[in-house]
Amino acid sequence: MIPSNITIAVLDRAPRDLAHLSSLLEEIGYRVLAAGTEAHVERYATSEALNLAVISYEAGHVDVAALVGRVRSHSPDTEFILCCRGGSVADAVAAMHLGARDFLSKPVEKEALLGAVRRALERQALVAEDPKLRLSLKRRAAPDIFVGTSAQMRRIADTMIEVAGTDVPVLVTGESGTGKELVARAIHDRSPRRQGPFVAINCAGLPDTLIESELFGHVRGAFTGAVADRPGAFESAAGGTLFLDEIGDLSAKGQGDLLRVLEDGVFRPVGSPRPVHSDVRIVAATNRTLARWANEGRFREDLLYRLNIVELALPPLRDRTEDIPALVESFNAHFSARHGRRRKHFSPDFLAALSRHPWPGNIRQLRNLIERLMVTVREASIGSQYAPPPPERAIASASRTLFSVEAGASAAEVEARLIRETLSHVTSNRREAARILGLSPRTLAYKIKAMRIPVDVAPNRAA
Question: Is 326:147 a contact under the CB 8 Å cutoff?
Fold first, then answer.
């Protein structure tokens, strides 16, 4: 591997740290592209073949997940090394979940950095040379949620395979945690667009002031703060799949903007007179009943018709308990490979206890449980003592807690009061509160912020 043939982008907002990291890599002979902002890294990804990106940042100052996603949308084979000051073990675990090859604490030592770079490049070379390894790693990146004997999941899998080879929009519905994004990624991986990017965007987190810019991008000078051209989700996903998560929470303005693109097939970046042809496959997901919302005027009926050409309705885990043993084994294989651990043996008593659990968090909750047990339990066999207790206390208190509202109060005021009372008197766990309220955790977090619910009322204790 000739160092001069390797291109590495280095991000650090501090000029001195940026120069230091760059010089360490340039000494070896690597071609280094220094970046003082996230926008510079994105620009390099669109114009260069990046082998590696070294992202150096202060904890809380960079949205690393969003940056990794945007870079990967242009350069899917780029490896990442994250360097953070003020990070924790939890940050390191989160970095690995983002697909980072290594996580280093700042200040970065020379040998640690060069060792991490060498390992990342060796891994990249192996994947590039071995198609079987590339496929294996792709499967390892997301566990299979279609295992088991459930007739409903078998029908969904068959339909998914039939539609994957087309470009028709797909609407994936189901409760929070049922695996809607995993299904969207499976559709992408089985489609002719699988070599293109998979870009996911959370519609619940799009305020009206940023919808157009996030979806369609903007040009330099389009508004205050637009210091450079920035591609939106549609442009970033060109040639691939655009996953619109929580589509039911998209604002009325966003629904109109999206409908216009789906009808015309073109969009304009904010501030640009140039129309851009849309070349994406749309997969949307929601935990809402959009047909009912359309009847109530809360979701555009014409947009629903555009999105719902094919619907894949995912069942909650409590309705497919016969699949739990197979799902546990799927997660067992997945996390043993990801974390370099031996597979665990899950006892029949443990599996029986899982089958009796109500699973308010669905597959996501089961997946998180198995991952936690894989990395924290030393024993080779996991028994029923590790099974989760049923959340009876929160459900019982939810049925007993009452509050009153004044006649004439707005719907927004009632909703804010309901959220406050649920978090104050039912459960302070946001994930459990979201389940009780019929919201996704991300939607609940957005509403807490938008409605300015005091943090001492709604502490962040999400599981």
Answer: yes
